[in-house]
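Here is one chain, start to finish.
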Amino acid sequence: MTKVPEGEEWRAMDGARDLYDPAASATVLRSARDGIREHRQGDVSLRLIDRKGRPLRGLRVDIEQTSHAFQFGEGLWALDAMWRDGEWETGRCRAYRERYLEVFNAATNLCYWTERPRNDASKTEDRQGEQRVENFAATVDWCLANGLTAKGHPLFWSIDKCTPDWVKRYDLDTRMKFAEVRVRNLVARFKGRVTVWDAVNEALWEPAPKNLSKRDWPHIEAVADMAEYIAPVIRWCREEDPDALYLINDYGVENESKGVRTSDGTEVTAASQRARYISLANHLRDTGHAPDALGLQSHTGWVQNHAEQTAVYDQYGEAGWTVHITEFWAHIKDLRAKHPEVPEADLQNLLAEYVANYLTAAFGHPAVGAFYFWGFMGMAVEWTERSGHLLRPVFHRVRKLIHEDWKTRLSVTTNDEGLATFRGFFGDYSLRHQPTGGPVCGIRFSNTKGFEGVQSIILDQGSSPS
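Its structure:
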């Protein structure tokens, strides 16, 4: 398979340059790498002392980051389906889980009320009175057992296909009561375990529940009407678990190259939807029901260049909002369709370059608080027989970024005051040292943004040098 050289010297082949040319974004990507050093790292000072409080001078220790503070995740649609289909202990499912853990520290667990027409989706109450959260609980348990941040998706979605048919027999107030019971029960049951939720999904394009019968996509609802039902959902959530993070989540706010029109001819663009999104979020904040972040689904395909990508983050950041990338995908089929003459190996390498650069641009921006894929394992792993599989270039590129380029590993020697200082990525760490005559020991500590200062660590190193 064609090798992808590191850095900006690699250029897309001429046959696909009109679809994606990384050279056009070289300046943006350099700025993003500077932003990673500025916004994703902090200065650490460890004061190493013996049990009598004396500084340990000239001591060499190894520092290894064990986890990221930043959430890198993926949707668990396939894993959820394998659990429901009784395939959890198959070789393929085991291999899937092992490969997942090589890349990510977070995961989106699925808890649709119902979901049509994709009937393989995870449903919690497709039939009245039959609450089924076993699969959701199973994937959450797997996340927590493996140190992943567990996210839930979605709690409330007003769209017709995600509202069970039996609910529609009731009047609006009763329907909303059923919704409230669902939201409260899920958040309460998984309190302290699911710590991030997509509380409301796709409000920008869909009617409020009271206007569902009038839906004519795109349905551009008034901000006040959206807030009228979103505010209670966020209130229900916070009353059940005030410590979790709650998002409103939406699509179609990134790409500038296309727009759609409503039934009355009004053009709806990414720019107009961004303005509505910020207006909605501000309204919720002004009325005491602010979400913790705004979800950007980022179904960008191959349209958006990285200057447009970071300009979107700029707009939200300037408005005072943190954004989470919640469902990023880039489909290889779009490349194949437009450039069938280009060898498959080259297309896979181009995909890897695009995804790596997109992730870099997001990670380097201070307004971005998390990055979740939607279908990464499908585009990054080619499954053959049973547990057999091949890893595509995008798998290697993303894993290398997260676990090599963006993780801190170094050796440090203490000064005369016993201080070991370094600059490293935010997250959890282990300080490794070897007491005289003993095995290597590790002591855990954290590098947390906003909590800079000297941390004292006691080591069993015998007498302090005089």
